[in-house]
Design a protein that fits this description.
Elements (H helix, E strand, L loop, with lengths): L2 H27 L5 H19 L8 H21 L5 H26 L5 H29 L11 H20 L6 H19 L7 H23 L2 H24 L4 H6 L23 H9 L3 E6 L1 H6 L2 H13 L3 E6 L9 H9 L6 E3 H4 L8 E5 L8 H4 L18 E6 L19 E5 L2 H15 L1
Parallel strand pairs: 1-2, 1-4, 2-3, 4-5, 5-6
Amino acid sequence: MSDALSADLLIQGSYLLTAFLFIMGLKRMSSPVTARSGIVWAGAGMLLAILVTFLYPGMTNYPLIIAAIVVGSLLAWWSGKRVAMTDMPQMIALYNGMGGGAAAAIAAVELYKGGEHGLVTMVLAVVGGLIGAVSFSGSAIAFGKLQGLIKRSFRFGGQQVFNLLLLVGSLVLGGMVALHFNASPAIITGFFVVALVLGVTMTLPIGGADMPVVISLYNALTGLAVAFEGFVLGNAAMIIAGTVVGSAGTLLTQLMAKAMNRSLGNVLFAGFGDTGGGTAAGEVTGSMKPIEAADVGVMMAFAGKVIIVPGYGMAVAQAQHKVWELTQLLIDRGVTVKFAIHPVAGRMPGHMNVLLAEAGVPYDLIADLDEINAEFETTDVALVIGANDVVNPVARNDKSSPIYGMPILNADKAKNCIVIKRGQGAGFSGIENALFYLDNTRMLYGDGQKAVAELIGAVKAIG
């Protein structure tokens, strides 16, 4: 058996093992209990794929490749260790963008080579480059919004028509490149510039409240772009990894949109979810009724069942550890405590689950919307910490509301609802929350971590 054949068998066999590790890793990530090991499995698959790359015949520039791997690994390790849990959504957006940018860079290299590829390969390179560039620049804007660098959404008349013209322009330029029709370097450069601008103009109008869906969408696009470029390079590992990420991201995007009772097109083009808070629901009557922490502590200490509903406010206040400490105190007193998680709570998919897992909350205490909604009617106290739209009852009964029809957590049906909130303003999407004005709701004003610390003190004082 020749050395070349042996090397090819080793490479293909390694890619088969890589595919197995990727798929098993993704499967294990589907459960919080096994998610950590799933990440390790998938990471091992990626490490194997990288090492096998060095065996490719004709591979050169080893010093540059090794330097890039070392620098990238060090930056990832450093940023991963330093990033706060509250900043995880923007880090995910940034990493999504890096994947799309890498796919676009691969496409650029292949397209600038010109006539080395056939028509099908050139078409795949163009499509992967377009998707990757859009994902890269769109994810960068999403990062800026989540990081607070971009304070508002930008809209102007005819914006969707302008975006459509950009899309058509990128397709025309890409078609010229794929068909080798006047495919000069200037045309190729123009193709990528238009694609990058399209990612920016698509994302700028989308409000921060819709960012979980947007992040998930760009994750899917990045995977798709990587898969296309895998076909261009004939790299099975890229095809498999991209397909897995793209399909998982697509399914997650559909689930997130369904959780908001909105189509993906509505998220991308309707302009709802603005951080500026310009959207209002119908008239809300009544007044917010404040309560002291000592009274809430007594109410919770003598309750039979408590359901805690976390939201982005808990993340901002970094109150998850205090929330778990309060939970332990209540459990020690014989109170049944559960956590209710809405699919779009926070700023990224699974945001609240990640925070609670970091605090050490057992997985069996955490339930999603479908599992726990029926239990609110038999709950003595629903404690809402920083959540807004996901508990807003106008989604059930006010057809004029932008969130009408969105599945919500039924916190308003608990015997008592306590809302920890920093002030009396509307939530991130700008919609007034009717829950705050109900007769069974009381407002505990203050920073989330400080307010929960006061509740801990109140429960301890009871003895």
